TrEMBL record:
Residues 547-582 form the Protein Lines C-terminal domain. The lineage of its organism: Eukaryota, Viridiplantae, Streptophyta, Embryophyta, Tracheophyta. Residues 394-508 form the Protein Lines N-terminal domain. It comes from the Eukaryota. This is Protein Lines C-terminal domain-containing protein.
Amino acid sequence: MATGKIVSRLHLLIDRCVRRYTEIEEVSSPTKEIEKDLLLSLSQVLREIQSWINEIASDSSEEAGEKTIDHEDETTAALYDPESEEYLCLERLVADLGSQWDDFIRLLCECLRLAVVYSCPIPDSEIGFGILRNILKRLSQEENEELLDVYLESVNSTLAKIPWCRVDTLFSHQHGNGERNSQGQNGALGGTPTSEEATVFLGNFVQFLCSVVQQVRFAEDNDGFEPTHLILQKTIELIPDLLCWCQPKLESQSGSCMSRYLGHKLLVLMIRLTYQSNIKCTILLSWLEYLQRHFQGFLQHTLTRFEPDQDNCLEGSPFFVSLSDREVNETHSNHLQRLTVLLFLRCSFTLLYSNRHTNKHCEFDCRKKGMEEMFKWIEGQVPGDTFSDHGTYTKKSVDFSTSFVRLFMHEDDLLFKVLLQLLSIPLHEKELLNVEGHSLQDEEQTILFRLSTLFNPVILFCIFLSELHYDHQVLLDYLISKDIGASCAEYLLRCLRTVCDSWTVFVEFPFEGSTNASSSKRRKVLTENSEVEQNGKLHPQAFEDAKDCLISLQNSVVKLHQKKLFPYNPEALLRRLSRFQELCLSHE
């Protein structure tokens, strides 16, 4: 079937099946009969489009060689010819949708609501959520706030209208029963969905919410009624229900692909919400309690056992299929551990370091509870008795810091998220002794001191460079990356200032015998016995490697910037690197 004919047929199909509903005055609050007719019409549209897809696939398999190329050239030319019938049909179709954008989006969301209400959970939920995700993705690329607001308002209104108590009842009945009801019907006729249908629905729904939260931009000074604020608040309100509905799937299908996917998406959703909104401290505490109950294994796992190259992230690669089931499970486990630890730190640090809690404005004493959770985690990683001996503690703390960085090295986006998060920890000059009669404030200061030691930003930066094998090309790749360039630039800017303010610590790292290996996150292939691998005992060499790496980075950025090839203005970063270079020269 020619592409141009598809456009004509699509226009006629929408005219025949859908247009009349836009002319009905009651469409904003449709009757049950109109709702039923609309669903049937949309189902007809979907079936016809699917039949076209199958027809095109069949035609493509029969055509080959020059004939196919000529045919594609003809249809493409027709589509781009402003005088062609196909072009005019496409123009009218787009114009119709564009002139009634609000109604179009609201209609899509209403269809999704009806589908959930009348056939929850819907077997084809991937289609409905997929359409809305694709529209959202396109809107984010257009950067049209007005259209995005309409979209978010419609989604928020839809979520508010769905009878979640009905959904909760369906999932409650479905848990532990993978069979359909006695009549063999699914949820569309009032029956209970199968376990597989319910899991697919939850996966699609959580994925959709992840996409929405990722695209919105939260402003702390809004009036609380902005579309972005409302959709975030509604999503936060749904989290307890989502956790309740998903947890049985995570437990009953432990180790399965769907179970890992659900766990991954739930953690991602909560992490994104911590960045995009001001979440009440009681909610953060409930999330910490959830992690302790259901992801305790990932939190308790000793990070000092995480060795370089332990995590080979090959998912999505053709080599991934060559891994054994055990290796695949380990790879997914490491990913879930990263997400669990990041969410734990996001929640805990917000309670520990936000102004609301440090100024004693919280009526629930959440800071104290957050402190208790952090203390238990630190004790599990670096027991308190190691703090009594300075030499032993220094080595163990650096070992922990090294393993911590290694855990995140294989996922660049999470790596910079966690490194930036750790920069929020204020440095403490000395630890208060644990003596009899010490105050609660002394206990808090001791915990804060241990945090600032385990996550000293200068030491973490040194470890970070060492794990890259001081390859400035990797840093340059980070900086020009579309996905993580801004995060990397922010991290380097903030770290370089801290390094310049704590020059002695930077020059003296690594401490004697503190590290003995590094990961394979590098471009250049190094020999097993290279000097980099032995930096744990070579203070001068470690400093020289770090200096050469950062100055080489400076030179590369300058060259790209002079040729106007750098993707953004790097002047601020170059000033910090120049200051670093000055200190290096004075050190000589």
